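During the no-cost extension, the postdoctoral fellow (Dr. R.K.) reprocessed legacy sequence entries with the updated structure-token encoder. One reprocessed record is reproduced below for audit purposes.
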Amino acid sequence: MKCPQCRTPMQSRRENYRWDASGLSNVVLIDVEVRRCPACGEHTVVIPRIEELHRTLAMAVISRPGRLAPQEIRFLRKWLGWSGQDFARHFGVTPTTVSRWESLEDPSPMGGTAERLLRLAVAHGQPAEQYPVSRLAEIDDSQDASPRLIAFKSSRGGWEQAAA
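Re-encoded structure tokens follow.
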């Protein structure tokens, strides 16, 4: 492979690589292929199965004890595929609040309930496809909390919800 900057043939070797491109400053990839240009110093890292790496990284972040750091909150939000506005809407907060949670200069800690919800959304992996998160905005604190009838009917494929 030739250097994208100066077209000199790049040299490849395996090494440990600090991967800041993840958005997290504490990620090291062990024994990955790194291609370096001997002329200009340009380098690229070869990351096989990057989607799997992102999923593994997200699971490691939510599994560690302690509060989430701002850069971890941002990484998890992006891993879920949410913009700052999407995140704010799903969590019932303002985009300014999300910005404060993710701020490196003057962070505002995410509340425990919101943090647990974020960890659960990541653990589930596909919240938008499996649960219509747009419905979260319809939850009204002033509504009656009494149980409502939920009806199901048996079908060849299993059980399905029916009109009550």
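Residues 80 and 153 are 33 Å apart (CA to CA). Helices lie at 50-63, 70-80, 84-91, 95-102, 112-124, 127-130. The remaining legacy entries will be reprocessed before the final report is submitted.
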